[in-house]
Amino acid sequence: MTSWQPGVLSPLELAFIGDAVWELYARNHVLGKGVRRPGQLHRETTRYVRADAQAAAAAALWDDLTSEEQAIVRKGRNAKSGTVRKNAAVLDYRHSTGFEALIGYLYGQADRTRLDEVCAQALKYLDNREG
Prior knowledge:
The chain is mostly helical. Helix content is 73%, strand content 0%. It starts with 10 loop residues before the first helix and ends with a helix.
């Protein structure tokens, strides 16, 4: 349960919470794959939470998103944060911010079904992308 409404948060605020939510989904996914050693857990999780992975997931999901969800991704992508993660290309960082904003927006909704669907699709795409 959230104490805020997704419609009142800025795209960067949605991305802030979306980053944490996505990391939790990625960590659960990695544990579900049977990874147990701390160093390996970190390395495997990083494959899903890197800016380039999130940007690729956003692109892969685009056609399956509703027009409202696409608008959230666009707003997140176009938001000016003033910083770029180290080791991230500017375009990847901006597209990953859009992805995180979407995850934050979906998290703020009362129905977790769509959040679970989008995260499952993104994780599946990234698994297949990595081989």
